[in-house]
Write a structure and sequence with these properties.
Blueprint lengths: L2 E9 L4 H16 L4 E8 L6 E8 L2 H8 L2 H9 L4 E9 L4
Antiparallel strand pairs: 1-3, 1-4, 2-3
């Protein structure tokens, strides 16, 4: 069963460029991972401090592999000083 999530980040005032850099660095390696079905980062045009990652993984094993990757470790250890708030939502695809 696929897993789809949206992860919203609110950058601290003045940290938009650094947050964009850190999140953008996740796209190419995440898309190349086994089990990655969709992975994109969006920045809100009308609210540039707000970013959203939308990702779909083949299954829990693929998501676990993503969380164990080197690029995820770099992101996880780097984003907090630039982030005011972060929250995750599990999404269900309607049929």
């Amino acid at each position: 069963m696929t897993i789809t999530k949206s992860v919203t980040f609110i950058a601290k005032e003045g940290s938009e460029a650094k947050m964009k850099e850190l999140l953008s660095a996740m796209v190419i390696p995440s898309k190349a991972e086994d089990g990655s079905l969709f992975y994109e980062i969006f920045q809100y045009e009308n609210e540039p401090r707000r970013f959203m990652a939308v990702e779909t993984w083949r299954d829990e094993k693929a998501l676990d592999g993503h969380k164990a990757s080197a690029h995820y470790a770099v992101y996880k250890s780097s984003y907090e000083p630039y982030c005011e708030d972060k929250y995750t939502d599990e999404l269900e695809v309607l049929k």
